[in-house]
Amino acid sequence: MRILITNNTLGSRAGSELYVRDIALALLKRGHQPIAYSSMLGAVAEELRMATIPVIDDLASLALAPDIIHGQHHLDAMAAMLHFPDTPAIYFCHGWIPWEEMAPEFPTIRRYIAVDDLCVERLHSTQGIAPERIRVIRNFVDLERFKLHAPLPVKPRRALVFSNYVGEGDILSNLRQACTARGIELDLIGLASGHSENQPERILGQYDIVFAKARCALEALASGTAVIVCDAAGLGEMVTPDNYETLRRLNFGIRCLRNPLSPDLIGKELDRYDAAQSREVSLRVRAEAGIEDAIDLLLNTYQEAIAEPCERLLSKESFLMPASRYLWRVANAIKVRSPTTARALTEAEAVSAAARARAEQAEHHLAEQKLQLVQLDAALSEQRQKVTEVNSALSEQQQNVALIGAALFEQRQRSDLLEQERWQHESLKHAISQRDDEITAMKQAASQRDDEISAMKQALSRYESEITAIRRSTLWPLVNGLYRLKERLWNTPMAALKARKAR
């Protein structure tokens, strides 16, 4: 497939110039025939020629018509589409602000391509392009050039400003002040500083944090660094897994740069540095933002444009009205954009866009604060209700505490009675123990008496035995007779004596 790619210039190493270089090299690698056209050539044109890609600044030098025109920047794109009126075209919009990105309405344009959501908004909201004619092909990274470097340190040590628009001045001074306060060394590369780097992939891995926007931010992320979205127009956020999708859809561009570049705000973003989160973002970029996927989408779009029916191209005269309207749109702008005023106008547009972005941000913050105020009122009302409920619960708890206190007092009284009963029980046990001891002693005494009685019974038994023996002896009658004789002899005189004394 022969593909004619147009661009405003092919001079300095800026965003759209490098975009042309990268897609031309990728298309050549896949066996297609890219041709680069611009009315202003330079260093990037030489890179393309060295890679054997044809580069022209005069369309008349191209004898064979291309199969598709890949249009970027309306002046050069319109020149190509008018020169090859039978060739279908697609038109790319790379930015919200630049005048060169204005989209012409021309019959041979089959598709309009936006690189982010803001460009989509510019096409259908300010230039009347029907949404169904718009496709989105987001910016990409050549992953073979930008390798993933070693994991970041826990604490950042080196930072880089990677921008063509930041030079020596207040912006760099504020960035350096915030970095120095945190022990971070800061370097700067880019056209405005006079330190342009032709091969940024060689040095990005030497830094822990990169301040950049758009393409530069995406390349730094793919290299494994932490990125704070930042440029001369303003300050954005540290890219994290939570905000990556939103920032990516905006191409890390102008709408992301809503804050002023003050040391305090820069410092807040530096303090959000998290090596693990930055690594997660880098791996995601490498998984979904490689150039090969973008080239697949681009080739599919080329094929759609070529295959689309051409009912509306009835004659070459049908080009005249769109071409006239296009010239009318650009006439006044061309008249005021002299070489001496073009840069100032671009800077003024950038400042105006930044101011609008800040105004939008202020309105957004105000709306958020109003919403927060409503939410706070609702929360306050809810808290008041909760306080009432808590007070009611507290009153109930106090009643419960009083009941518990009364129950506790009753329990203490019962405890005292139980303690008294326990003491009496212990005293009774002690008395019973003493009585048991006395009974034991009495039992022991009784046992001794029983032993004594038993001994006496034994002695009595012996006596009885002896008496029995005596009575059985032959002398017993003699002794008994003597006893009775003695009794008579004794008792009779005594009785007479007692009688005389009685008289």
From TrEMBL:
Residues 15-145 form the Glycosyltransferase subfamily 4-like N-terminal domain. Gene3D superfamilies: Glycogen Phosphorylase B. Residues 352-400 form a coiled coil. InterPro entries: Glyco_trans_4-like_N. Keywords: Coiled coil. GO terms for molecular function: glycosyltransferase activity. Pfam families: Glyco_transf_4 (PF13439). It comes from the Bacteria. This is Glycosyltransferase subfamily 4-like N-terminal domain-containing protein. It comes from Dyella tabacisoli.
